[in-house]
TrEMBL record:
Organism per entry: Leucocoprinus leucothites
Pfam family, one: Exo_endo_phos
The keyword Signal is annotated on this UniProt entry: yes
The protein's name: Endonuclease/exonuclease/phosphatase domain-containing protein
Residues annotated as signal peptide: 1-19
Domain of life according to the entry: Eukaryota
Gene3D superfamilies in the record: Endonuclease/exonuclease/phosphatase
Keywords for the protein's UniProt record, in alphabetical order: Signal
Length: 622
């Protein structure tokens, strides 16, 4: 297939520039001041060749005084005869056309500056050496912001997003402050990443994220980089990390995981596929891997104390009756989560799994999981859930995923005397009773509201302990992040879809929470599940944060350890648990822990879910 690209500036006439330097071509902005022009006598040392795919080579010119200006550049060619004319270490001159390349299928990516259609290549000398930028010594990346265009109270997570574009503004680079500017100022240069540490698993192309031996923020105990907030309260975008791409010599990158230490990586800085990369000259080697032992929770159910309730939350990723990972999930619930009194589960499929046959019931799925738990723990759970309308709650076609509760009947029961809600029945707080009571148990929050189109409706349940103390739970699984743009893309702030839907969904949940607390300000209430959003996206969580407090805050978990998911360079928290003031009041008797059984897997294939479970406890008496 031919190489598809769009040229930023179409010109009826191509001006000819004599003796142009690489620094002249790169300039001090994202876009070249010479884009669309023909240039002559561009001189530099060949620093690397792209052997796999044969798409060109890299040149290094004289070092400029201005750190905003790169003196490296890719020369794009698919001509084997042209590639055969040059060798790494050759000092050459050439003519060509300056081009800003971006795939026509990726309009939200940045342009990459390059010389295309090289001609008149002259080798002036060979076996030349060239300087390599040692990151962390010669240059160090900034550690919080990606772009000056990420305006808004939540920085790169602000909403509205996609309000400006880098290629339109094309501002002067500020590599001392903004991460994208920093990597752009090194475009085409050869850099070395000393002592790299992987922050994620490799993707399907063998690419992975790292940071090196330089100052970083958000480093967690595993060696990953967590999304946190900076001293100014703006979310930290972790711009000090970079992707390692396919080695230029055709060797294969190793498998990685969070915290894997590697040998030094040397290669050119490039922009491709929506991110800044370093393409290693040859594949790095693994020096060490973290321990594969996952510590279990220190929180366990105490059958002798009815005033303390333990709970767990787990997105079990498309679980059907025939799912191969059911025994592993059962062992996680038993050995790592210590069979809590109550479990919030997400992504429970119907009894026929992904077969799209109209089935909506999930009793077989849940009983299969319950049987598996009992076989390894001796604990027998009951379940409660509400079937969705076929095909209306999103997820994999035919799966009808939903939220569900498992509970230990010797510890808890649903508050009796209230009917079970149906798929389209809206639960409400009753106004005709002397104390707090629900119209349905369990029930769904406003299930016909358009905000819940093609996504899961929150499941509400009221519970009673052995000593007749009551509490309430809301199990959520909000709309997923499909369709978002790269965090290092052209659109600023980055596109975060569907953030407006998630904002509406949180607001609807918050309205229901408010109705509970208006009826009883001391009510014990937990909202937990997969929110598909970071807590640092404060605009989304604002309505709920006015009413409830995250358990991480209640028990003061270190901010860098608040994560349940790894994606791109980040350890991030998509799964949350919120406590009402009635629970927070007794925070000295509360606990909460994240169990990183999947984020800390030794390899991507060893994970059984893309989410980590969590476990907590709270005091229900008083």
């Amino acid at each position: 297939m031919g190489r598809l690209y769009s040229v930023l500036f179409a010109a009826a006439y191509l001006s000819v520039v004599s003796t142009t330097t690489i620094s002249d071509i790169q300039g001090t902005r994202f876009l070249s001041p010479l884009a669309g022009q023909s240039v002559q006598n561009v001189t530099g040392v060949v620093t690397a060749k792209i052997y796999e795919g044969s798409s060109g080579f890299y040149l290094l010119g004289e070092k400029p005084e201005d750190i905003r200006v790169s003196n490296g550049l890719q020369v794009f060619t698919t001509s084997t005869s042209t590639l055969g004319q040059v060798t790494v270490g050759d000092l050459i001159s050439l003519d060509g056309r300056v081009q800003e390349f971006r795939s026509s299928s990726s309009p939200n990516n940045l342009f990459a500056t390059e010389i295309a259609s090289p001609t008149n290549i002259v080798v002036r000398s060979s076996n030349n050496t060239f300087p390599i930028v040692i990151l962390g010594k010669d240059r160090s990346p900034p550690t919080q912001e990606l772009s000056a265009l990420d305006v808004g109270p939540d920085g790169f997570l602000s909403n509205p997003n996609n309000v400006s574009r880098i290629d339109t503004v094309n501002d002067e680079l500020r590599p001392d402050r903004y991460g994208m500017d920093f990597w752009e100022s090194l475009e085409g240069q050869i850099v070395t990443i000393p002592k790299p540490i992987a922050t994620n698993f490799e993707n399907q192309f063998g690419e992975f994220w790292v940071y090196g031996d330089w100052h970083v923020t958000g480093k967690n105990s595993r060696g990953g980089i967590s999304i946190t907030s900076g001293p100014d309260g703006i979310p930290d975008a972790n711009p000090e990390t970079v992707i390692i791409g396919s080695p230029l010599d055709g060797t294969k990158n190793p498998t990685t995981a969070v915290g894997v230490a590697l040998t030094d990586i040397t290669g050119p800085v490039v922009y491709q596929f929506g991110f800044f990369y370093v393409l290693p000259l040859t594949a790095p080697q693994v020096i060490s891997r973290p321990s594969s032992n996952i510590p279990p929770t220190t929180i366990s159910s105490n059958g002798n104390d009815p005033c303390v309730v333990t709970f767990g939350d787990y997105n079990v990723e498309n679980m059907a009756p025939t799912s191969a990972h059911i025994p592993t999930v059962a062992s996680h619930i038993t050995d790592l989560m210590k069979t809590p009194d109550l479990l919030f589960l997400q992504e429970i499929q119907d009894n026929s799994g992904e077969t799209n046959d109209g089935t909506v019931g999930a009793d077989v799925t849940l009983k299969t999981l319950i049987d598996a738990i009992e076989s390894v723990s001796g604990v027998r759970y009951n379940f409660t859930q509400i079937n969705p309308v076929d095909g209306q709650d999103g997820g994999v076609p035919g799966g009808n995923i939903r939220t569900a509760f498992l509970y230990r009947p010797e510890r808890l029961q649903l508050i009796p005397g209230t009917p079970v809600g149906g798929s389209l029945d809206a639960i409400e707080v009753r106004k005709d009773t002397k104390k707090l009571a629900l119209s349905l148990n369990p029930g769904r929050i406003d299930p016909t509201n358009p905000a819940w189109a093609s996504t899961r409706k929150p499941l509400v349940a009221g519970w009673q302990t052995r000593n007749k103390k009551e509490f309430y739970t809301i199990n959520v699984h909000l709309s997923s992040k499909g369709g978002s743009s790269s965090t290092q893309g052209d659109a600023r702030p980055p596109v975060n879809l569907p953030i407006d839907a998630r904002s509406q969904q949180v607001a609807i949940v918050a309205d229901f929470v408010a109705s509970v607390l208006d009826r009883d300000s001391k009510a014990k209430l937990i909202v937990a599940g997969d929110f598909n959003e970071y807590s640092q996206t404060r605009s989304v969580f604002a309505p709920l944060a006015k009413l409830l407090t995250e358990f991480d805050e209640v028990v003061d978990i270190p901010r860098v350890e608040r994560y349940s998911y790894v994606f791109d360079q980040n350890s991030e928290q998509l799964d949350h648990a919120f406590a009402s003031p009635g629970i927070e009041k007794h925070k000295n008797k509360a606990a909460f822990e994240h169990i990183h059984v999947n984020s800390w897997s030794p390899s991507f294939d060893d994970r059984i879910s893309d989410h980590d479970p969590s476990v907590g406890k709270f005091f229900v008496c008083g």
